[in-house]
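**Archive record**
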Amino acid sequence: MSSHGERSPEAELGLLDATMIGMGAMIGAGIFVLTGLAAEIAGPAAILVFALNGVVTAFTGLSYAELASAVPKSGGGYAFVREVFDDLASFLMGWMLWFAYMIAGGLYALGFAPNFLELLHVYGVVPAPDQVGVVVIPGLGVGIPPTVVLASVVILLLVGLNAVSTAASGSVETIFTITKVAILVVFVVFGTLSPMFSSAEFQPLFPGDRTAFSLLPAMGLTFIAFEGYDLITTVTEEVENPRENIPKAIFISLAATVVVYLAVVTVAVGTLGAAGLAEAGEAGIAQAATEFMPTGLPVIQNGGALIVFGAVFSTVTALNAVVIASSRVAFSMGREGQLLPSVGQIHHRFGTPFVAVVLSAVVMLGSVVLPTASAGNMSSLFFLLSFVVVNGAVIRLRRERPDMNRPYEVPYYPFTPLAGIALNLLLTGVLVVYLLQTDLVALLLSAGWLVAGVGMYVLLNAFRGRRRAGEPDEGSPAAVPEDD
């Protein structure tokens, strides 16, 4: 639907394109950046961490599928919540999702930096990433870590691209995602054939003082790795037959991604070992690949370079995806009158939500000074909270509009959305406790964003109230034109 001359998006994306959008976002920085951090917390049980997160997120995936089939509107979770909840609830949903995508952008940029340095190191251009010196700002004498510089540069490049041109077509995203998956398949094949893997020892599953409870904080940290299928619903109006294709794309992308994740994490733990993987941190997968991939190959020289390139490529494409997603959430909120009107406008020259893109970039750039774990924690926290609301939206829509057309319905209602709410709340609670003990700054920044959101909501309401007060009421002499 269009109004005031606005064009409706054309439905040009098929089932494969929609599926690749989800997989392209999920198979990104998360698997490369967070695997080492998960191993640091959970040891060899990092494999279980990714498996259990796949189960947890599947419940919310089912809810997204029903909502997309019933409310075929672009905008993702924000559009669904806007449909069934009041103004404040929908505003907070959009506010949380916007923040989650922006911080995810910071995480992906932080994942890009060490992997890009590792790629240059493989080719002998620079020393090992941990030996690269700081970048000194001329005239100020201030040293900035090279990872922060690289993360900022890649954000600025992609934000500039998104601000002045439209996003890549679905077919291009499909090619990119297939390429990433192919690279990871190569990693898995060489890893399983490696003598390092044949002698792998996954026991004890919980070494040292670790217990099964170690899984929970690691799940909270890595939950963001499964963020991505929700991006499919942000382009609902651009997908052919969305009531059927969107649910199918969600299921296929989730299932395929879980399989890829489990294979990659198993090989990484089995070759580098949980301790070695934890020590490598954000560059864990790249380091594992360097250990067992062959050398002397044409062009790429070192087989490990192929996987490092895959990590660089994946973080860039995932970052681009969340630049698009964050700006579209802000744009939708502006168009709905829940942010300043300028945020919901299309640039007259570039044809893009220019203001929304730029605003999103500000928070992304600010987040690159955070440790990678903090960025992951903050983003995971807000995705968990927003997924609670999405599951609640399914229940409310069923109650308020029982006869609504729903080509797909979640099985075992209401158990499925209730289980989604309970599991997401459980991980939220665990993550909050974990942050209280280990990362208070991330928790305070997250709370500050919510407080700022409430303040913004109050100010915008007051602004709209003053504008309405200055407008003549319908039927008043000033509102009714005089007849000639």
User: Anything to note?
Assistant: The first strand starts at residue 135 and ends at 136. The CA atoms of residues 321 and 432 lie 27 Å apart. Residues 1-9, 474-480 have pLDDT under 50 and may be disordered. Strands lie at 135-136, 143-144, 295-297, 301-302.
